Amino acid sequence: METPKIYVVNLNSYNNGRTRGKWYELPVDFSRIKSDLLLDVEHGEEYAIHDFENFYGYKVGEYSSIQELNEYAEKLEEISDIEHLKDFLEIYSIDDVINNKDDLDFVEAENDEDLAQELI
């Protein structure tokens, strides 16, 4: 599985025409983002997420909570059948996969008879 990533910018810098942003793999310590992007009183304390990758249908917004995104990334790490994650996502939402990760089984079968044999 590819690690979820976010591109975070210092919103004050961005609004004033200066690029101050960086890609982060999740989970990431928010204090690192604050330090890297100079999120402080002098440079502006607000951030925005301007891009993201590998969230498998999870809704990421410009002002999503870093803590919630970290929790999501940690839950993804708990999915044992990562190689079949994309197959599960053709049927289930990412929230369903995360919430039922221990109950999902992937069965490869060429036809109904093979499927029946696998399930017996």
UniProtKB/TrEMBL annotation:
It holds the Pfam family ArdA. InterPro entries: ArdA, ArdA_dom1. This is Antirestriction protein ArdA.
